[in-house]
Write a structure and sequence with these properties.
Layout: H1 2-14, E1 27-29, E2 34-41, E3 54-67, E4 79-91, H2 99-125, H3 128-132, H4 135-149, E5 152-164, E6 173-187, E7 202-218, H5 228-243, E8 251-265, E9 279-293, H6 294-315, H7 329-350, H8 353-376, H9 381-393, H10 396-423, H11 429-435, H12 444-448, H13 455-463, H14 467-504, E10 520-534
Parallel strand pairs: 4-5, 9-10
Antiparallel strand pairs: 1-2, 2-3, 3-4, 5-6, 6-7, 7-8, 8-9
């Protein structure tokens, strides 16, 4: 059973990046609690989710070890070890556009962000007492939290490399990042590694980085097209020279070591104080030696222009011809004309009153449907289908604005009802009997706006009162008007505060970070550093030109 569970987890989460994951490679020592996988080749599409013009040419994970302390789940940390992670990427060669697949991927990404937005709101509104009623749930949640907060990560021998022989075929180049060792673990406030059980509202992490470097080799030999065996041998030999402090590459950033102490507040409530950031990082480095050659600078310039072209191609990749310009020039002329015409037609359509009216109806319809979705919990099939149709038609930014308006409305109404229940006076028994008469109960609109109707009912009821009852009624009316003024003032103040929050947070793209006044505070300490610009990156002929 444990083997099947581990295989399902690996197929679900690791299988997206690993080629032909074979669960027969899985070996689990039940007494030690070790899950170990070796020699896992990476998929060619492992970088596709990043939406960058790169694809994996060759890659392998030497070993993944997950250590589970079976006999000490609540007293010992879990550990994840990754060794010999080698990846070589190159420029994207398959530029074919699959409209159905692209739309499905966009819809999935949009729904993930919308679900995360709604889940965060539900968590903030969740009554903590409901969770406390279940001791088993509390036990499981606390144990899961301790496991996640105390996971130890150890990564050894990592080499990410980009090879390009397309931008400049006469002089192929390769850029890469090499890391000898990276570790992360939980600590106490003094920076000592410990197993944290009751962390309160603050968690401490220590990240240790050893021998991290960045290089760019010009006119070099490419290894991405080698077989897997030859590729592993070449990468291992390169890593061996790297650990022996040789210079197998033309470094832009010489190997450095650094430590980072991370302090994170885990409170679900927003941190409003400007002196209390959500995350505090103290970053310490011994030395940085940075040098850039003229030939390396040219390579980065070519790479940067290629990324710009990719961003422009993304908008018009739907009808992009497969043939080259020399093969079918007429198709490329038509493609260029249609790209401009489609943009002009879209702009003209959006500037018509018919489009504005229809879009306004859709937004109002989605507002009402989503309000019912949150307040009623279960909506009918028609509204559910309508909600999904609108979510497919609108982009994420439009949907996010409408959802935030709904959430703001619910938050305001919740605070208003709480204020009324604590501030309005209780009626006596005679008034309660009078209010219980169905014909005398004011509607919702009349309770919010008593001046817009309903006064005739009050005057009719007043005619049948005695003088003493009339005086009491007038006093209660005055008191109600005063209470209503207090409620309106509270609502007005709340609306003003919400408007100011929206104005202050309008520059942020993510609505998940806007609740904290200060999200992160970082401190960098550097012992020494150097910066050099060279005519050539080759060590034997390098000369400073600045």
């Amino acid at each position: 059973m444990l083997e099947g569970l581990a295989a399902w987890i690996l197929n679900t989460y690791v299988g997206e990046y690993v080629e032909n994951l074979n669960t027969d490679q899985l070996s689990i020592a039940l007494l030690q609690g070790d899950v170990e996988l070796e020699n896992l080749p990476l998929k060619k599409s492992a970088l596709k989710s990043l939406d960058i013009p790169l694809e994996v040419r060759s890659g392998v994970i030497g070993k993944i070890v997950l250590h589970i302390p079976i006999r000490g789940l609540r007293s010992e940390p879990w550990s994840i070890s990754i060794e010999n992670l080698y990846l070589v990427a190159g420029p994207l060669t398959n530029l074919q556009y699959d409209e159905k697949t692209e739309k499905e991927n966009e819809e999935i990404a949009k729904q993930v962000m919308l679900d995360a937005l709604e889940a965060k709101w539900k968590i903030l509104r969740q009554d903590k007492q409901e969770w406390a009623t279940s001791s088993w749930f509390s036990y499981g949640t606390s144990m899961a939290t301790n496991i996640l907060e105390n996971i130890q990560l150890n990564v050894k021998n990592v080499h990410f490399r980009y090879e390009d022989d397309k931008l400049n075929p006469e002089s192929p180049f390769a850029c890469g990042v090499i890391i000898s060792h990276l570790s992360a673990q939980s600590t106490n406030q003094d920076g000592k590694p410990v197993y944290v059980q009751d962390h309160g509202d603050v968690m401490y992490k220590l990240v240790d980085l050893n021998n991290c470097s960045v290089y760019c080799d010009v006119d070099t030999k490419l290894i991405g097209s080698l077989s897997q065996t030859e590729f592993i041998v070449a990468m291992q030999a390169d890593m061996l020279n790297y650990t022996r402090e040789k210079d197998p590459h033309d470094y832009i950033l010489q190997p450095i070591s650094a430590k980072a102490q991370v302090k994170r507040y885990t409170s679900a409530l927003p941190l409003r104080s400007s002196s209390t950031p959500r995350i505090t990082v103290n970053f310490t480095m011994e030395a940085i030696d940075f040098q850039l050659g003229q030939d390396q600078f040219k390579c980065f310039g070519l790479w940067n222009r290629e990324f710009d072209r990719h961003n422009r191609r993304r908008k018009y990749r739907k009808n992009r011809p497969i043939n080259t310009v020399t093969e079918r020039p007429s198709k490329w002329w038509k493609f260029a004309i249609n790209c401009h015409l489609s943009r002009i037609h879209e702009e003209r359509q959006r500037n018509t009153w018919d489009f504005i009216l229809e879009r306004s109806r859709i937004l109002v319809d989605y507002y009402d449907t989503y309000m019912s979705h949150l307040t009623e919990g279960i909506i009918n099939q028609y509204n559910e289908n309508r909600k999904l149709e609108i979510e497919k038609e609108l982009d994420f930014e439009e949907l996010k604005i409408i959802r935030e308006l709904v959430l703001s409305r619910l938050q305001t109404e919740n605070k208003l009802s709480t204020f009324q229940s604590h501030s309005l006076p209780k009626s006596n028994s005679s008034n309660e009997k009078h209010e219980n008469i169905p014909g005398n109960q004011p509607g919702l609109f009349q309770r919010w706006f008593p001046g817009w109707g309903g006064w005739s009912q009050t005057s009719i009821a007043t005619e049948n009162m005695t003088p003493s009852q009339s005086e009491i009624s007038l006093k209660s009316i005055d008191q109600s008007e005063s209470d209503l003024f207090d409620v309106q003032s509270a609502v007005s103040t709340e609306i003003e505060r919400e408007i100011m929050d929206v104005i202050q947070d309008s520059t942020e793209n993510s609505s998940f970070l806007r609740k904290d006044t200060v999200f992160a505070k970082m401190k960098f300490t550097l012992s020494k550093g150097s910066f050099q610009l060279l005519e050539s990156a080759k060590s034997e002929s390098g000369k400073d030109f600045l």
